[in-house]
Amino acid sequence: MSKKTVIFNVGGTTFEISKDSFNAYPNSILYKLVNKSSSSSSFSSRFTSNKSSTQTICLDHNPFAFSVILDYIRYKRLCVPKDVAREIVELQLREFGLGDDINLLIQDKNASIIEDALPSYEQALNEFSASDGVTLRDAATLAVLRRIDTLISDVILPYLKRHAKRGHHQITFYLTPNNIITKNITTELEHINDPHEWIRLSTDSSSVEKDDSLENDLTDLQFLLQKRDTLRDLIISKSDVKECTVNKVEISYRIESEFGLFSSKSCDIVQIFVIIV
């Protein structure tokens, strides 16, 4: 981890942020903790700092509200999601010595005080300064690469090696939510008679498990649909195959209700076509 960043462990949830972000709040408790200044005795039992080479500050607080505090420090805007209690956020602001800041915001009628939506992802990336060490864009990119790399290393590469040993020159992968199986699909897919594998995504996109919840899988599936080019490039890089294309394919499938009645639904899945040699 960069020496220019600090990790907060809040109720078991970790957050990483640039140390320089706190320079605008020199009188706050968080600034003192980040700079390893001694805090008052009233806080000593609740705020502890790990003295190891990796600076980790442990806080006994609500992590959801604390994430709002960190976003306020980053963007100078107080944005509270609907599922976070505003009262808890205000209490933390005052406890961390940011009470004066929130009072000034409330008095400023033109200020963006408390909103129901956080800044957009692109806005967050664009507003984070590259001089802060590990940028938010870098962190997001690394997270994307790690998730896709795990899927390729643990699932796709073993399948590729198995089919290569069988003498297959090409293979098609279909990445679907885990409650959709071949017999449910009514759409005629390309290459369905060629060598192919079905990868059923669980809530963790790096594994293949049984789960009855489709909603839990859509996040990972949409994630891969949005990162098709990255997925393609990493497959080629890690496997040295001749060619790889990643497409979004819409399929229709049947579902059976608890009363034995069938209905049809549709969703997008990921199709990966690989030419091995």
TrEMBL record:
InterPro entries tied to this protein: SKP1/BTB/POZ_sf, T1-type_BTB
SUPFAM superfamilies: POZ domain
Pfam families listed in its UniProt record: BTB_2 (PF02214)
Signal peptide (UniProt feature, chain positions): none
Superkingdom classification of source: Eukaryota
Gene Ontology biological process: protein homooligomerization
Domain Potassium channel tetramerisation-type BTB span(s) in chain numbering: 6-99
UniProt-listed Gene3D superfamilies: Potassium Channel Kv1.1, Chain A
Name of the featured protein: Potassium channel tetramerisation-type BTB domain-containing protein
Organism: Rhizophagus irregularis (strain DAOM 197198w) (Glomus intraradices)
Lineage: Eukaryota, Fungi, Fungi incertae sedis, Mucoromycota, Glomeromycotina
